[in-house]
Amino acid sequence: DEAYDAEKPEKYWYSESVIDLTQNKFVSGYTDETGKATFTFGPANPLLRAEATKVALLLFGHPVDGAKEGEMWETPFLNKARELNLSIANEDPLKKITRGEMMNLIYELGLKEESLKKPDKSEDYLDVTGADQYWEAFQSLYEIEVVQGQEGKYADLQGYLNRAEMAKIIH
Questions:
Q1: pLDDT tens per residue across span 69-82
Q2: pLDDT at 44
Q3: Which residues is 160 bridged to in the sheet?
Q4: Other CB atoms within 10 Å distance of the CB of residue 50
Q5: Mean pLDDT value across residues 56-67
Q6: Which of 132, 130, 141, 73 is nearest to 103 (CA)?
């Protein structure tokens, strides 16, 4: 995983998304042990549920106070997720998030904000059926072109999402 090269942002397919999300303070990249920015985004690194929760809450305009002294950075975001009764709040926040879980998180927040609706149609994908727990979220986000699936009509909802994919979806 190479470090992000600020001198050549066009070099990467996700660059525009990362730059915009960073400027709007939805993402911040990694810091060193002193808390100083390293200017490394880690695009191929898996996204954790806690990170996804933070980004989604900020995206949907849910202000969250910073962590209190002695708290982990993710604590206020997880508390807000519990307050909003989001399904992700019941999962281990330090585990990798799947594409389906991320879509469902966006979908749940979108329904609460009334910016998303239940899907009108069904797109045929080889690995997503009406019985899939994330079918409704996938279909809703597919309808408004937030997600496209992968080549060969696969959505891979159980696959893990990396940081670059998250930036592109959110952007």
A1: 888 889 999 999 99
A2: 84
A3: 98
A4: 22
A5: 89
A6: 141
Nearest to 80 by CA among 104, 102, 53, 98: 53
Q: Over the Cα atoms of the chain, what is R_g?
A: 16
The sign of the torsion formed by the CA atoms of 161, 164, 169, 171 equals positive
Quote the CA–CA distance of 166 and 132 in Å, as a whole number.
21
Tokens of 65: 């106070």
Alpha carbons 161 and 101: distance in angstroms, whole number: 9
Distance CA 95, CA 18 (A): 22
**Per-residue exposure over 105-121, b if at least 16 CB sit within 10 Å of its own CB, e if not:** bbbbbbeeeeebeebee
**119, 140 in Cβ contact below 8 A?**
yes
48 beta partners: 96
Written as one letter, the residue type at 71 is E
8-state DSSP, 46: B
Q: Cβ contacts of residue 99 below 8 Å, gap of 6+? A: 155, 156, 157, 158, 159, 160, 161, 165
Helix (H) or strand (E) run with residue 13 in it: none
Q: Calculate the average pLDDT of the chain.
A: 83
CA distance linking residue 11 with residue 5, whole number of Å: 8
Q: What is the pLDDT of residue 150?
A: 75
